[in-house]
Amino acid sequence: MALNWYPGHMHKAQKEIAEIMPAIDVIIEVLDARIPYSSNNPMIATLRGDKPFIKVLNKKDLADPVTTQLWLDYFNAQLGTKAIAISARNVTETKQIFALCAELAPHRVQQGKQLRALICGIPNVGKSTTINVLADRIIAKTGNEPAVTKAQQRIRLDNDIVLSDTPGMLWPKVENENSGYRLAATGAIKDTAMESDDVATYVVEYLMQAYPEMLKNRYGLEAFAHTGYDTLELIGRKRGCLRSGGRVEMNKAADIVLHELRDSTLGLISMETPDMMLVEEDALIIQREKKAAKDLIRKEAYKKKKRR
What we know:
- Helices cover 49% and strands 12% of the residues.
- The protein is an alpha/beta fold.
- The chain has a domain at 3-173: P-loop containing nucleotide triphosphate hydrolases (Rossmann fold).
């Protein structure tokens, strides 16, 4: 699965970021604490060079705290990177970002110069809320509907920090099928991008493995069905999502599961771990190598055909 979103916006954002990157001291990337890998934008890592990085794991109040700590340990072990878990509306937590900026760019602070930070994040990770709290005023529009920031802007903050806000970004293509499902499950992409029963089936299959008791307790299940889809059907029956003839309306069952995942009614759930990321990254390398080999065979066959 290779999902494509906002390619025009992405090209514009990439160009704008590349232009201002030489003047930036610190990069702040806002991530969804439930999916720090899938909500990370690979383009930022490519453009970053050796710039110091702050990974802000927002929505920690929705994520599994044990898994969030694993992610903090993973990011903090990386050179030139600091990670923090916050709930963006918590002013005290969010303003810890100021201290991290100063720690990662001490030369700017010591010389009494303005510290220039770039803040970025894909839609619906809470970047706008983070900006508003840091600025002590409403700068950016907030809301749960995935959107695309139209233009870059520079915001003067306390502590002699100038914050450059980038357009909200989703990369043009999501190669990792798992990441596509997780982005859809947490609401980072519009619900119309994928079939809700497919996304909910993925979620249920994951919960059956990672949080089985949480899933059973929430929906009153004594046992799971053989597959995630069949378990989703059981949940639909429990919740009365029935059509005439007693058939389960799967879209309604899916909407219930996705809604209760997103607002943490199901419980504090993280959809991925650092170990899962490493396994999926290895699988992506193999996938790319196979694609490259197929492309090469196709090109060679085309050349032979032209020579005839």
